[in-house]
Amino acid sequence: MKALVVLGTRPEVIKLAPVISALKQRAEVRVCASGQHREMLQQALGAFGLQPHIQLDTMSPGRSLNILAARLLEGLDTVLEQEQPDWVLVQGDTTTAFCGGLAAFQRGIRVAHVEAGLRTGDLASPFPEEANRSLLARIATLHFAPTPMAAAALRAEGVPAAAIRVTGNTVVDAIAQAKAIWPEGVPASVPAEIGQRLAAGPVVLVTCHRRENFGSVMEAFCHMLARLSEQHPGIQWIFPVHLNPAVREPVHRLLAHRPNLLLTDPVDYHTSLYLISRASLVLSDSGGIQEEAPSFGTPVVVMRQHTERMEGVKAGFAMLAGQDPVVIEAAVNGWLSDPARCETLRARQNPYGDGHASARIVAALYGEPCEAFHG
C-alpha cells in the first residue's frame, strides 16, 4: 500500500506525525508539505524528525484563502498524478486538508480524514475550519473520529457507520512520543528565558491566533491581560505570540515591557507541551491545546464563542468563556482563586484519547478490526 500524507500547518504535523511513524512500519509513505504555514511547519517537523518528500510553494503574504486553495489544488493535482497513492491522508480542518481531500476525490483516490466529525454547528465559527471539515465529510472514504461524540455527529449527517472508526485523538499519541525523549522530564529545547520564568513562580500560559479574535477583539484581550498581570503580580504570564501580523502588532503594542508578562516568539512543540504541564492555567483559543491540556491535568479557559471540543468542557478540564473580556477575566480569576479545584483534574483521564489512535488508524486502512476508543 502507498499512502500520501498531506499537511501544511503545525497542528497537522503534530497530529499526523505518530500516524506517519506507525504507517511506515507497514506501508510506503510519502509526505507532502503544502506550504500553507512554512515557518511554523518547519519547527513542528523538526520536533518529530520529519522531512517532507514533496514541498509545495503555495502561500504568499496577504493572499486570500481562495488564491491559496487554487494554488493548492493545482500543486496537489500534479503530485497525485506523479505519486499515484492508494490513500491520501489529511487531518483536521485546514485549507490544506480540504484541498488535499478534494484533489484526491476528483482523481478517484480514497481519502482518509483524521480527526473527523468535530462540529460547532456554526459555519462562521470557527471560520473557515467548520466548513472545511464539514465538506470533507462528504468526500472522505474513511472517517477517523477522535471521540464517540464526533462519530455521533458524522452519523447525524448521514455518514455510514461502516465508514467511521472511533480512534481517539492522535495528539495524545504525539504527547507520549514527545515526552519519551525528554531527558529527566524536561525538554532540552526550553529557552533559558522561559526556564527562568518557570522558576520564578506559578505560570499562566496564554495563546491566541484565531481569525474570529482579530481586530478589536484582540485589542480587548490585550487590555484584559494587562489587568490580570497587574492583579496577579506573583504569577508569571507567558504568551508565545503567533507570527501573524494581526496578532503580533496589537500584542506587542499593548503588552510589551510588563515585568511579569513574557512575550516570546512561537515555541517548539516540546516547549509548548512542557509549558502546559507546568502551567496552573491555560488561557487560549487553540483547539489543540484543549486536547493536550487534559493529559497534564491543566485547566483551560477557552476564548471562543463555540468549541467543537465539548468533551473537555463536560469532563471539567475546559471552560468556554466566549469573547467578552469581562467573562474571560472572571473565569481566569475563578480558577486562580481555587487551586483545590485545579488539583482535582490531575487524576482524571484525558477524554480525547488513550495513546493508541495511530494503531487503530493503520489497522482501519488495512481493513483490519480493532477495538474502538470509548472515551
TrEMBL record:
The organism's superkingdom is given as Bacteria
Keyword Isomerase set for record: yes
Q: Which parts of the sequence belong to the UDP-N-acetylglucosamine 2-epimerase domain?
A: 24-365
Keyword line: Isomerase
Q: Which reaction does it catalyse?
A: UDP-N-acetyl-alpha-D-glucosamine = UDP-N-acetyl-alpha-D-mannosamine
Q: Which InterPro entries match?
A: UDP_GlcNAc_Epimerase_2_dom (IPR003331), WecB-like (IPR029767)
Q: What Enzyme Commission number(s) does the record list for this chain? A: 5.1.3.14
Top EC class for this record = isomerase
- Answer yes or no on keyword RNA-binding: no
Kindly name one Pfam family recorded for this protein.
Epimerase_2
Could you state a single Gene Ontology molecular function term? Answer: UDP-N-acetylglucosamine 2-epimerase activity
Q: Which family does it belong to?
A: Belongs to the UDP-N-acetylglucosamine 2-epimerase family.
Q: Which PANTHER family match?
A: UDP-N-ACETYLGLUCOSAMINE 2-EPIMERASE
Instruction: Quote the protein name from its UniProt record.
Output: UDP-N-acetylglucosamine 2-epimerase (non-hydrolyzing)
Q: Which organism is it from?
A: Uliginosibacterium flavum
What gene is this protein translated from? wecB
